[in-house]
Amino acid sequence: MLAFLLVTLEFIMTRGSVVDPDIWWHLRNAEYLFQHHQFPRADMYSFTVVGQPWINHEWLSEIPYYLAWRAGGLGGMDAVMFATISLIFLGLLYLSYMETRHFKAAIMACCFLTFIASVSFGPRTILFGYLYLVLLLVILQRFRQKGNAPLWLILRKEAGDVLMRSGGRHRKWESWRSRALPAWQRCLLIPSGLASSFIPSTWRFARN
Questions:
Q1: How sure is the predictor about 155, in pLDDT bands with cuts at 50, 70 and 90?
Q2: Which is nearest to 198 in space by CA: 15, 39, 76?
Q3: Which domain range does residue 40 map to?
Q4: Same-domain pairing of 79 and 163
Q5: What whole-number distance in Å separates Cα of residue 139 and Cα of residue 158?
């Protein structure tokens, strides 16, 4: 019931929040992608640097908003924004509860944070980055507390970086590889690593 109240609060705070002017050029970028089946390679909007090489690093986050806009207009975009923000705060609620083991305190903390974060509510592509960050924290917290978590859901590079930095020694990384994941899940790290090849900036960095 309290979790439902938190979602209700998110619904109230996100209503009428489609005021971010950046959403329109994000929609145009996604429209270009769907129409031409390729990423724009040059700046098409700026007067001073038009035609200069440019990489759209937010293309994947633009697609849900574009599809929602095509299906339901502003209401569709508002629904995507509400669903994403709700998932973010439900993830934060889970994290808070797992740390405190006090559900009411976790609810109060998330409600308080909702009012603080409401100034940034809007159809922003960075919301999907926040959602992924919360998922990353949930997985790592479960691994820290129980020693077992679906780490294969994390991209291979990020899983390695986080564990190597937090562990500090190569033997901990080897221990994680041999203990935390069954063989079939370790195999899934390969396609998750290959998924990074769909990020346009990956190819630019590889060439450099």
A1: low
A2: 39
A3: 2-149
A4: no
A5: 12
